[in-house]
Specification:
alpha/beta, Aspartate Aminotransferase, domain 1, Aspartate Aminotransferase, domain 2, 2 domains, 7-stranded mixed β-sheet, 3-stranded antiparallel β-sheet, 12 helices, binds pyridoxal-5'-phosphate
């Protein structure tokens, strides 16, 4: 049975050209880029090139790119590294209720060290209230961290506008761009953000590699302490092969993402229109228009999302829910709860996230199967 993978916001397969680019660095080109001999210099060149590829995609200088071990580390570094550097000026951070746990848990950690954090709420469509945002600044606000696009709903936040407001108040701005890279056309100079996190495995590069853009002149303490790699901003011998892969993945996106996203958006829109039409009591979570092109989060009233996911899996289709398994109990998505959904509605929601290899035929098949799956589950459900 051919699998239909619709969970690209969780992770993506490695692109063929990315794998090709990486292989030499897993074999013969094994040097340490800090070494001055030839083995070292060969890989140092590769490291520089990857840095340029990432910088070019973002519209940054290559000296503004720091490689990390993942998106989570990039988020940790941005929040904790900035807080440690500027905390003398205050202790207040502004973020949202719908951030990834990498941001959420960094904030919780900083709270345990005396930070005060404002978690901005969202409305039923998953959007922020900019007036409330403006009012949340106060004496001692050090940093704003707001994601570009939400991993569960795909909702896009107005980062450019929010950065302008923060800078008027002299406050630094970090954005978690993990779900935006590859899906949105943007440029860090136009956005004017101070820091941006990204991750390899969401963009067809391997797991375990990420990067942060840190605008020239923005102070950020190293969180991983060690050698002077990454100009002292991140210790540890570089994960060369994966960094080369990340560079290639971003160069590939630079050239192909526009056409790929057009195709992906068509599939997503076709999927969504058909599901909402065919499955009674289903609706889309998140504002219609201001979403990344690949994400569709759908509530199927009266069923358990987990049930839908497991039934689809048996039929060869992979989707996911925002639910997290914590202490043995399945918790409904905190993102959807923040959007004012009831526990039942949040628990009945499923995320479908499309990618470059999905075909019209796969989506047609999925659209055919889902109504049957939901109907069957509803027949057994205590909520129906
Ligand atoms: C996946 C993800 C992360 C974490 O990236 P990892 O590389 O898996 O650590 C952070 N933020 C968002 C929005 C994500 O989707």
């Amino acid at each position: 049975m051919e699998r239909i993978y619709l969970d690209h916001n969780a992770t993506t397969p490695i692109d063929e050209s990315v794998l090709e680019a990486m292989l030499p660095y897993l074999k013969d080109r094994f040097g340490n880029p800090s070494s001055i001999h030839s083995e070292g210099q060969v890989v140092k060149e590769a490291l520089n090139r990857a840095r340029e590829q990432v910088a070019e995609y973002l519209g940054a200088e290559s000296s503004e790119i720091v490689f990390t071990s993942c998106g989570t580390e990039s988020d940790n570094m941005s929040l904790i590294g900035i807080y440690d550097y500027v905390r003398g000026k205050g202790n207040h951070i502004i973020t949202t209720q719908v951030e990834h746990s990498a941001i959420m848990q960094s904030c919780k950690y900083l709270e345990s060290r005396g930070a005060e954090v404002t978690y901005l709420p969202v409305n039923r469509d998953g959007e922020l209230d900019l007036e409330e945002y403006k009012k949340s600044f106060r004496e001692g606000t050090l940093l704003v961290s707001v994601m570009m696009a939400n991993n569960e709903t795909g909702v896009i936040f107005p980062i450019e506008e929010m950065v302008t407001i923060a800078h008027e108040k002299g406050v630094l701005f970090h954005t978690d761009g993990v779900q935006a890279v590859g899906k949105l056309a943007f440029n860090v100079k136009e956005l004017d953000v101070d820091l941006l996190s990204l991750s390899g495995h969401k963009i067809y590069a391997p797991k375990g590699v990420g990067a942060v853009y840190i605008k020239k002149g923005v102070p950020c303490m190293s969180v991983v302490k060690g050698g002077t790699q990454e100009k002292g901003r991140r210790g540890g011998t570089e994960n060369l092969a994966s960094i080369v892969g990340l560079g290639q993945a971003m160069e590939r996106l630079f050239h192909h993402q526009e056409e790929e996203n057009k195709k992906i958006k068509k599939l997503r829109d076709f999927f969504e229109e058909n599901i909402v039409a065919k499955v009674q009591g289903s609706y889309v979570n998140g504002v219609r228009e201001k979403r990344v092109p690949n994400t569709s989060n759908i509530c199927f009233k009266g069923v358990e999302g987990e049930g839908v996911i497991l039934s689809l899996d048996l039929k060869g289709i992979s989707a996911s829910s925002g639910s997290a398994c914590s202490s043995g109990a399945i918790e409904p998505s905190r993102i959807l709860l923040s959007m004012g959904r009831s526990k039942e509605e949040a628990g009945a929601s499923v995320r479908f996230s499309f990618g470059k290899s999905n075909t019209q035929e796969q989506v047609r098949k999925t659209v055919e199967i889902i109504p049957h799956v939901v109907e069957k589950l509803r027949a057994y459900s205590p909520f129906a």
